[in-house]
Amino acid sequence: MNHKSNGKASRKKINLVDAVIAVVFLMSLAVTIYLTVTLAFSDGDGSSGSGMPVEYSLTVNNIDAERYGITLNEQTGIAECDFLKIGDTLYTDDAKSIGKLVSIRYEVATGSTGKTDNDGSLIYAEYPGRVNLILTVRGELSGDALEIGDLKLRVGKTISFHTSGYNADAKIMSVDTEVE
Length: 180
Fold this sequence. Notes:
By secondary structure, the protein is mainly beta. The chain folds into two domains: 12-41; 53-176, Aminomethyltransferase beta-barrel domains (Elongation Factor Tu (Ef-tu), domain 3, Beta Barrel). It contains one helix and ten strands; from the N terminus they run H-E-E-E-E-E-E-E-E-E-E. Residues 41-48 have low confidence and may be disordered.
């Protein structure tokens, strides 16, 4: 075995395969960092804050306040519930997020008395022990139209939603796109 050593370190040239492996590694590292940062700054429901924010009101009608443990604050109109909490994410039946719950208000539920007034209009009266919950939800529009995912926000539309501990049907009462 003859080794010639002239005191110089031998330099190995970078071949094409090594260069491709290095580029693939750097690209996968960049994608991993991007996804980590994107998820860290998302709202926790998969939205990254890039869509236009929207708030809309849902009304869940005729709930037995005592049975469901709803506490009512008559001065502020705010309701507290064990089954709904501020910050809960609301989902459609197919598990798509429609936003986060930002407020829970109430109004006393009314029902028809079956009687009419002099004009022939039905007379409504308070429904004792029952409330309508008015939920304000904040989400992000998914396009130019008033849509959050597959949900089209249209006043008067009834939707089904659920949280981790509650299912309900609710009517969209208002939509506000002027939120920050």
